Structure to design on (520 residues):
């Protein structure tokens, strides 16, 4: 008996070593079943795995029983294996036909004759993975020693099975990541804390001319102006990065660098810092933007002179019309003046927008009373507001902001104009409000809002209204005046003044655009 125990212990030790080395599930299952039969001296063995979603047991592999059993499913609680899974207790049945839980369906499918079964649950950290069965004791009957031995083996097999599943899951995720990484059209580079390139996809290798021997991001970006500097990038959690090169050809790369934790070498010790930089080539976009700004600026300047003549002479003729002009001629003259002024306003907006997009544009920033700037905006629009049937009230208190007076006046004019022109009511009311946000006006920020009671902005358009040339459909607003530059101009100016813009709108209730600027 002692010799048998020693042999069984040696077999369990050998089985533990062997199954621990198997990470391929198919190999592991086969090894588990082979050793399960040896450990208890059975003719065959089978392994039921638990489907957690359906709570059914299924044959993943049954040594020597053929593939036809793979379609069999047993709900937890049904049959011998189902009862063992439900109770999580081993079961020894030396005469299966005397056990009411036994079903002959498996034998009918395979032609195999089952006489006895030893079934034990496979659990890992109190989680049921399946049921391991030894079928038909070769010599004698299954006893408590067999049960103890198979339970010990099932415990080892459960650990190996969970490890193999985790390995398989990680490998699948790695394969997906590698496929996604390699097929990205954007460049992607993973570097460690020292800037050494750990991984780069094909797009990054082409854009940065990376070679197998070039392992440093600093070396790859040599000759390029990086904003912000790489030292700042490596110390930031997440930052937008641009790298620009002038020679031999113009190249502009832009993207986001994000800090990530990397496993220490060999999986030991604390995780090391690293950065993932995902970027794309925006050289052509920058070139087109430059051409667009140049074109708009040039055309705007070229249009100003003839427009000044048209509107100027139209105003003179309107104030002191010749006696020969009839009613139809006077109507045409008024139309010329009105449309000329609209076109002049559009040209001025184009000029303002192209000017503010130029990074070299100098701001004249200083402390400004919000009340005074709002009064400037309303005064400049007085005649148009009267014609539109609009009134503007200002409640700004004594709040001061750090801003450029001309630009902030233009911002408020754009917001007031939008609030009025999209309101179809005969009488329009617009409010300009200011209040302190944060700890206080001196060390916090000041909010300035322009509120209207117009039709509101559809939810799908609220993110887009700040884009260049975007306009809400005329079927909703009732008209399409302007070029869709007003709110884009507002956003650009406020951001360059270190502020932010937010919009709140509800259909049928109106819109509020709020600017937050540094307090003075």
């Amino acid at each position: 008996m002692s010799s048998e125990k020693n042999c069984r212990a040696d077999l369990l030790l050998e089985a533990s070593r062997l199954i621990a080395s198997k990470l391929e599930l198919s190999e592991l299952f086969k090894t588990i079943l082979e050793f399960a039969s040896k450990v208890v001296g059975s003719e065959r063995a089978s392994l039921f795995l638990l489907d957690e979603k359906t709570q059914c047991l299924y044959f993943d592999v049954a040594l020597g029983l053929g593939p036809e059993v793979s379609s069999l499913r047993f709900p937890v609680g049904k049959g011998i294996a189902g009862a063992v899974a439900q109770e999580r207790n081993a079961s020894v049945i030396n005469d299966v036909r005397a056990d009411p839980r036994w079903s002959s369906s498996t034998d009918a499918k395979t032609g195999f004759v089952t006489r006895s079964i030893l079934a034990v649950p496979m659990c890992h950290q109190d989680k049921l993975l399946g049921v391991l069965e030894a079928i038909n004791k070769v010599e004698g009957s299954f006893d408590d020693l067999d049960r103890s031995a198979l339970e010990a083996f099932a415990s080892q097999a459960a650990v190996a099975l969970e490890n193999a599943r985790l390995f398989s899951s990680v490998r699948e995720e790695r394969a997906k990541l590698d496929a996604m990484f390699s097929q990205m059209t954007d460049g992607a580079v993973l570097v460690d804390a020292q800037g050494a390139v750990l991984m780069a996809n094909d797009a990054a290798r082409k854009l940065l001319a990376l070679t197998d021997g070039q392992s440093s991001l600093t070396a790859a970006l040599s000759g390029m102006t990086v904003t912000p500097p790489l030292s700042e990038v490596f110390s930031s959690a997440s930052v937008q990065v641009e790298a620009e090169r002038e020679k031999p050809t113009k190249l502009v790369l832009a993207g986001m660098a994000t800090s990530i934790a990397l496993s220490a070498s060999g999986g030991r010790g604390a995780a090391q810092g690293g950065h993932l930089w995902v970027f794309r080539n925006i050289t052509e976009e920058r070139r087109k933007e430059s051409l667009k700004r140049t074109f708009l600026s040039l055309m705007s300047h070229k249009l100003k002179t003839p427009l000044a003549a048209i509107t100027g002479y139209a105003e003179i003729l309107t104030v002191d019309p010749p006696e020969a002009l009839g009613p139809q001629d006077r109507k045409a003259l008024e139309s010329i003046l009105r449309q000329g002024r609209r076109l002049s306003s559009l040209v001025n907006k184009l000029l303002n927008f192209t000017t503010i997009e130029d990074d070299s544009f100098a701001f004249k920033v200083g402390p400004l009373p919000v009340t005074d700037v709002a009064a400037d905006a309303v005064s400049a629009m007085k005649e148009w507001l009267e014609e539109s049937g609009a009134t503007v009230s200002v409640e700004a208190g004594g709040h001061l902001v750090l801003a450029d007076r001309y630009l902030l006046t233009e911002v408020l004019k754009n917001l007031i104009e939008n609030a009025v022109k999209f309101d179809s009511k005969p009488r329009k009311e617009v409010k300009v409000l200011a209040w302190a946000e944060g700890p206080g006006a001196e060390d916090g920020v000041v909010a300035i809002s322009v509120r209207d009671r117009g039709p509101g902005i559809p939810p799908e358009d609220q993110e887009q209204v700040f884009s260049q040339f975007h306009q809400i459909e005329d079927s909703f607003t009732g008209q399409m005046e302007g070029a869709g530059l007003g709110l884009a101009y507002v956003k650009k100016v406020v951001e360059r003044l270190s502020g932010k813009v937010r919009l709140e709108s509800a259909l049928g209730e109106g819109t509020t655009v709020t600017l937050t600027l540094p307090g003075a």
In short: The CA atoms of residues 36 and 45 lie 6 Å apart. The first strand starts at residue 42 and ends at 51. The chain has four domains: 2-172, 185-281, 293-356, 365-518. DSSP finds 15 helices and 19 strands in the chain.
